[in-house]
Write a structure and sequence with these properties.
Layout (H helix, E strand, L loop, with lengths): L9 H29 L4 E2 L2 H7 L9 E9 L3 E10 L3 H8 L13 E7 L3 E9 L4 E10 L1
Antiparallel strand pairs: 1-2, 2-3, 3-6, 4-5, 5-6
Length: 142
């Protein structure tokens, strides 16, 4: 009478094994999809770091600087700031001495520079009222 046989619970272990076997690949796929969706989105970055990437420095009289970077297959950096219009040409000449004017320019002043065809820098300057200039710099590597 005291001999009762315990039922085997093999089906519980089978269910746990199936969840582990199927759940791990699904979790990896979900993580990969999330990571891929975040790739290439611009994120704020320190402007000194962004300008170092672009092989330059912000001018001492730069104001309202905003910088962002994005990474996926290439790295891409954008820098926007204002500075006195009178100093823009000198800053461009000293910062990017090998730069050249592009064929097409939709700003008041434009410059393209490349470093061994691995890093490209594009600068567009738009003159504003009051003697200021809005500078938009973009840089990317391949």
């Amino acid at each position: 009478m005291g001999d009762t046989k315990k039922k085997s619970r093999w089906w519980i272990w089978l269910a746990v094994g199936l969840v582990a076997l199927c759940g791990l690949p699904v979790a990896v796929l979900v993580w990969g999809a999330y990571s891929f969706s975040e790739a290439g989105k611009p994120q704020p970055v320190d402007c000194a770091e962004a300008m170092t990437f672009a092989h330059g420095r912000l001018p001492a009289d730069a104001e309202d600087a905003r910088c962002a970077e994005a990474h996926w297959q290439d790295s891409y950096v954008t820098v926007d700031f204002r500075m006195p219009r009178a100093g823009v040409a000198d800053w461009l000449r000293t910062t990017y001495p090998t730069g050249r004017r592009p064929v097409s320019c939709d700003g008041d002043l434009c410059l393209d520079a490349d470093y061994d065809q691995a890093l490209y820098v594009n600068v567009k300057v738009v003159y504003e009222d009051g003697g200021t200039a809005l500078v938009h710099l973009s840089s990317f590597n391949v």
